[in-house]
Amino acid sequence: MRFRVRRANIKQTLREQFEMFGEQVIAVALGVGSDGMVSTAAQKLVRDNPVDAILWLREQRDYADRHATRVELLGWAILVLLAVEVAFDVGKVFSRI
Predict the structure, then answer these.
(1) What is the dihedral of CA 53, 23, 61, 58, to 10 degrees?
(2) Distance (Å, whole) CA 64 – CA 75
(3) What's the half-sphere exposure (Cβ side, CA atoms, 13 Å) at 79?
(4) Which of 22, 29, 47, 62 could form a disulfide with 5 if both were Cys (CB 3.0 to 4.6 A apart)?
(5) Does residue 12 have a pLDDT over 70?
(6) Which residue has the higher pLDDT, 38 or 56?
(7) So what's the pLDDT on residue 92?
(8) Residue 74's domain spans which residues?
(9) Contact (CB, 8 A) for 10 and 58
């Protein structure tokens, strides 16, 4: 469960370039590298800024984790409210008997 996002302290231009390519492309470019291959723009960007790419990917993962945590908490809240409603309805039924 993550509530706080560890913001990457990177330049805005790098952030925009990373966001333009997206998480999957940056992660693949970081993992594959460019040894003996024709480098794409994403691979060149990651090769020149590997630490910034890792920090940005961590930030994106934190955002996804925070979203999943909020969705899970919302689901639990709905379940608790539903259980309380059912308990009240059962109480009403038994109070009439």
Answers:
(1) 0
(2) 17
(3) 6
(4) 62
(5) yes
(6) 56
(7) 87
(8) 12-96
(9) no
Q: Has residue 1 been placed in a domain?
A: no
Per-residue model confidence (pLDDT) at position 40: 84
In a domain, 91, yes or no: yes
Task: Tell if the pTM clears 0.85, that is, is over it.
Answer: no
Q: What is the DSSP letter of 76?
A: H
More confident position, 35 or 49:
49
Cα 26 from Cα 9, distance rounded (Å): 17
11 phi and psi, to 5 degrees?
-65, 150
Residue 88: both structure tokens together: 């009240």
Query: Count of domains in the chain?
Result: 1
Q: Write out the two tokens for 68.
A: 């999943």
Of the candidates 48, 45, 42, 50, the one whose C-alpha atom is nearest the C-alpha of residue 8 is 50
CB atoms within 10 A of CB 29: 22
Instruction: Give a yes or no: residue 2 inside a domain.
Output: no
- Residue 5 in domain: no
Structure tokens at 54: 């890792």
